[in-house]
Description:
Largest sheet: 4 strands, antiparallel
Distance between the termini: 30 Å
Order of helices and strands: HEEEE
Oligomer: single chain
Shape: globular
Amino acid sequence: MPLVEAALLEILACPVCHAPLREDADRSELICTDAGCGLAYPVRDGVPVLLEDEARRPAR
């Protein structure tokens, strides 16, 4: 089952770099597709939390 509706995912973008997002259902996150950014935003109760302060930074 998707975290967010497909139509919503199409219009959502990373608020930091504006790249598209992809779902990671196992972690309940939306991940920025930009290799230089890669922030992971949580989805809580079906609502994406697109705040930089709430995002998980990728391991480097």
